[in-house]
Amino acid sequence: MTTGTIIGSTTRGDALMTTPRLDQPLEPRRGLLPRPHYDPESFGRLSERIARFLGTARFLVYMTAFVAVWIGWNVLAPPFLRFDEYPFIFLTLMLSLQASYAAPLILLAQNRQGDRDRIQYEQDRARNERSIADTEYLTREIAGLRLAVSEVATRDFLRSELQQMLRELDGERRESHPTLS
């Protein structure tokens, strides 16, 4: 079943020609062989575990021991027990097969790590933006408080004003009552 706009009828019976709509995804095509179903997340985790193991010294030691045993067996064993004579073509095939699987697994693991890094970067950037906004807000608030405090009378200012008023009152009282002094 295809969705689209009807162009018109064709000469092939009652079928109508349609053009695919660009705002809707295409229906999946059916192939001759069924596609295997797998969980991409599980496969991704497995590929990361394998890629981590391939990048260790333990893997290099195991691979070196495997190759040494392979070559040693096929050189030192009696001729009827040897299964890969020199130039060890089967060993080359095995190592090539291992490399052909290892490379895509490593790339998949790197892509997943890149996705995680991108998400972490976006979260860090959002956190930094919030911190900057909070800092700017607090800076404005502190500036506002400084302005408000400069307009408020301080204790020393009030003391000096009261002392001046007392002196003025004493002076007025002495002038009005010269005999009291």
UniProtKB/TrEMBL annotation:
What's the superkingdom here? Bacteria
Q: Pfam families attached here?
A: DUF1003
**Residues that span the membrane, as ranges:** 59-76, 88-109
Q: Which InterPro entries match?
A: DUF1003
Question: Which of UniProt's keywords are assigned here?
Answer: Membrane, Transmembrane, Transmembrane helix
Protein name according to UniProt: DUF1003 domain-containing protein
What organism, scientifically named, is this protein from? Actinomadura vinacea
- State the organism's lineage: Bacteria, Bacillati, Actinomycetota, Actinomycetes, Streptosporangiales
